[in-house]
Amino acid sequence: MNKKWISSFLAAALLVVLTGCFGSPSEPPPGAGQAAASPDNELFIYTVNPPFYAKEAVFEKQLGQFIKKKFPDITVKHVHWDNPGRQYKDLIAAGTIPDIIIDNTRMNVQRWIIDNDLQDDISELIKKYNFDTSKLNPALMAQMRNLTQDGKIYGLPFNNNDFVLFYNKDIFDKFGVDYPKDGMTYDEIYELAKKLTRVEGEITYKGFSQNPGHYMNYNQLSLSPLSLTEDKASLSTPEWKKVVDNLRRFYDIPANQFDTVETFASKGNIAMAVATVDHIVSFVEQNKNLNFDVVSVPSFAEAPNTRYQPNVYSMYITKQSTKKDLAFQVMAAILSEEHQIELAKEGLIVPLETKAVQEAFGQNLPQMRGKNTQAIFHGKTAMPPAARANGLLWYDVPMQNVFAPLIFKESKDSVTALRMIEEQSTKGIEALKATKEVKK
Stretch 184-213: mean pLDDT, rounded? Predict the structure, then answer.
């Protein structure tokens, strides 16, 4: 046999195997000739986040059925990230590039979409279809614009996995302390935490708990752990020390050593805990006797009524898509008030924050009935950091390690803990840079 023919045959066979991973369970694997192309009326949507789209029924209910109703002449092919077989590298290797990708903006856009040259500036499509981005949460749109310094917009926000302050009413009642309210500062919550942290017999009541990594990554002072101008971490600043000291004082309350917020429902001994909004449902499911409610997250006195930075999942049109106009029209339809209301009913915090959307939030979820869900919309979302200089590497600085283990286990002072993570991260960036240079 001719060696060149054998190589072509093996490449085609590999393509069939890889693309076979991407169809739905009932869909037969495509032939080699179909791998890189798709019908003109098929829109390929690849979801990495939100994670609940791993369940096809959830995707169909929230997006698939709506798209088919609005665009009856097209079919939707949906693939959700999985390991192995459905990762970015697998789609790229098979030549099956999606039209739309929905993923975590802060964590994944730089390292997966941009680093694989899948990004595409949609500014002209926004103009062409007269899409008004000003109607969307301004901090979420800033996150879209701040991916580059040249004004390019690679995506539109889809869902912000925001935070609220949970509180256990029974603990407040037991100790005769007034419930927290929307709009309170960390100073006010700290005073409540001191009153509610007690040891009674074998039970330790903890006044306050929070995930330090989330608190740092989405900090309300809009600080970046990375230098905006150089390939290095940047944590040795008075502003970062302020952020660390603010949370550290809660941990330093005798007997209030932090427990994971996940135990808020299971143990029932935490008076207040900051967690993502979806925990309203999961806490009810874990403990139906738990008497709790939510208020807005505490804020810094110098940035009052400020929620956390965007923890946003966004929609991106790929450079390789041959259906950019259709893809944008679908994204625009998803962001219409009509569908934003429907997504809000399902408990998604959407970019459109009109009165109708806010009032619809959680209506389809019995677990949210009677809860102060309007706390989710109190105040404004903190702006993300400014755009970094073009060409700088993205690195996931392990902000949670400032507290665990350096502060929680090793009792480092705040300045030392921040400096250590800064030094470790800068070395990590240098190593990553060297690896990328070798690959060139």
Answer: 97
pLDDT in the model for residue 440: 62
Cα first-last separation, the chain: 35
CA 184 from centroid of its chain's CA atoms: 24
Output the DSSP codes for 141-187: HHHHHTT-SS----EEEEEE--EEEEEEHHHHHHTT-PPP-TT-BHH
In angstroms, rounded to a whole number, what is the distance separating the alpha carbons of residues 308 and 149? Answer: 23
- Comparing 140-149, 174-183, 223-232, the range with the smallest average pLDDT is 140-149
Q: Note the pLDDT tens digit of each residue in 26-69.
A: 333 332 233 345 788 899 999 999 999 999 999 999 999 999 99
Residue 6 pLDDT grade (very low, low, confident, very high; cuts 50, 70, 90): very low
Strands (E), 217-263: none
> What's the token pair of residue 33?
């000739």
> Residue 117 in 3-state DSSP?
coil
Confirm if 241 and 412 have CB atoms less than 8 A apart: no
Q: Residue 215, SS3?
A: helix
**327 alpha carbon, distance to own chain's centre:** 22
- The residues facing 380 across adjacent strands are 306
Q: Which helix (H) or strand (E) holds 91?
A: helix 88-94
Strands in 26-160 per DSSP E: 42-47, 75-80, 100-104, 155-160
* Residues forming beta bridges with residue 224, ordered by sequence position: none
**In the structure encoding, which two tokens stand for residue 388, read together?**
């970094």
Q: Are 353 and 137 in contact (CB under 8 A)?
A: yes
Q: For 23, left (φ over 0), alpha (ψ -120 to 50), or beta?
A: beta
Residues 296, 163: Cα–Cα separation, whole Å:
8
- pTM score over 0.90: no
Question: Domains of the chain (ranges plus CATH)?
Answer: 16-161+313-365 (3.40.190.10), 163-309+384-439 (3.40.190.10)
CA distance 335 to 337: 6
Query: 3-class SS at 163?
Result: strand
Report the C-alpha gap between 81 and 19 in whole angstroms: 14
Count other Cβ atoms within 10 Å, centred on residue 411: 10
Give residue 121's identity as a one-letter amino acid code: D
